[in-house]
Amino acid sequence: MVEKSASNGDGAEANKERKGLWSPEEDDRLYTRITRHGVSTWSSVAQLAGLRRSGKSCRLRWMNYLRPDLKKEPISKREEETIISLQKSLGNRWSVIAGRMPGRTDNEIKNYWNSRIRKRQQNTSAGGKDGGGCCTKQGDLLAVAATAFELAPAGEQKPVCTGVTTEAAPPVPARFPLFACQLLGSGSGGGDTAIATAGTTQSTITHENNGAGSESEVSVGEDGREDHYYYRAGDGADMDMVHFLSFDDLLDYSAGDLLVDAWDHSEVYCTNSRSSAD
DNA sequence: AATGGGCCCAACCGCGACTTT
DNA sequence: TAAAGTCGCGGTTGGGCCCAT
Fold first, then answer.
1. What is the CATH superfamily name and number for domain A15-66?
2. Could you tell me where in chain A the CATH 1.10.10.60 domains are found?
3. Alpha carbons A64 and A71: distance in angstroms, whole number
4. Which strand B bases fall within 7 angstroms of a protein CB?
5. Between β-strands A193-197 and A178-182, what pairing exists: parallel, antiparallel or unpaired?
6. The overall pTM is greater than 0.70
7. Which protein residue lies nearest to nucleotide C15, measured between its Cα and the C1' atom?
8. How far does the CA of A71 sit from the C1' of B3, in Å?
9. Topology of domain A77-125, per CATH?
10. Strand C positions within 7 A of protein Cβ atoms
11. Tens digit of pLDDT for each residue in A16-50?
12. How far apart are CA A123 and CA A110, in angstroms?
């Protein structure tokens, strides 16, 4: 870093903006100022706290280190899986990813990604191809669900489903970053599951009840109404257009409406007037 | 014990978006 | 409407730690 010592010399240097690592005294000043008086603008915080730091630097220090709600423990395996799945669907939108992971900062996640996951994936991609895009295997779906469950802030981790049929499948979290659905179309589509992350336009659909565990390309798009997406099977697939909703929408339902298996959402659709077919 | 390389992570930089004047 | 100020984001840098040699 630019400088290591907390205290500079006097004179001209005294008015110069400080850079580099923060001293405990600076941390204390900033923390005290913000917890007592809040933030109007970051540049004023720097001034009023008596810090020779830019507002930008103060903001960064607070957001990445001093904020009381930050988790101090290392990123867990499940959190890592969350990062991987969210990065797949959202790209390098670290602040959005961090928003889904309470207690974690964008900088922390970005660093973690750059220093560990990306390198690991680079190594493994030398061997086998990672198809990219969305999850295509039931195991992946469950893994994503498991990690997503961890996303929910403690107060929101209310199990909303019963009758989970597989030990690996957790309850649907209160806030789930993904879209998921069970096809309602007639014929063999009825037992299919689909999952896609918000904002994606392509995914795959996994057939479970036609015996083969095969997959079809599907497209995801908005049907013109708010928070309302459709799934359309690709060429050759034997299913109709279906509606599905984000798990965030599940918050709109009373507990009684949500007594569904994590991977059997048909009841949700049945009770969701907004998602009825046109 | 010395040293060189790799890794981690705190912090800076540049830029675009947004807000205020 | 334009300019200035501010914020927030993603990319990058570089110091320090750890470990193998």
1. Homeodomain-like (1.10.10.60)
2. 15-66, 77-125
3. 10
4. 7-14
5. antiparallel
6. no
7. A1
8. 36
9. Arc Repressor Mutant, subunit A (1.10.10)
10. 5-12, 14-16
11. 778 888 988 888 889 888 888 888 888 888 888 88
12. 19
